[in-house]
Design goal:
Length: 95
């Protein structure tokens, strides 16, 4: 298990144990935000789509889609390790 996954697990389990009053709701919100931010650091594989055909009639897979926000990027030009729109880490092994 990676350090990020361990940190998420710790935050999630402690969040359930905390007792928050209405005045302390910001602490719960902060924990949720921290968990979401850490989850985005775990690389996820994007969907690969084709939007055209070559001269032989084969589909050209030239678009990758962020697995978090579904923003579309060009395979040949948009070589991001993180999605520019939402910050999701991208597993580029299959792009």
């Amino acid at each position: 298990m990676t350090d990020i996954k361990r940190a998420i697990k710790i935050l999630e389990s402690n969040r359930k144990m905390f007792h928050f009053s209405c005045a302390e709701i910001d602490k719960d919100t902060a924990l949720v935000m921290a968990i979401k931010a850490l989850e985005k650091q775990i690389p996820k594989k994007p969907d690969i789509k084709g939007d055209g055909y070559n001269n032989d009639g084969n589909i050209i897979y030239d678009t990758w889609i962020c697995p978090n926000c579904e923003e579309h990027y060009e395979v040949e030009y948009d070589n991001y390790d993180f999605c520019p729109k939402c910050g999701q880490a991208i597993d580029r092994t299959e792009i």
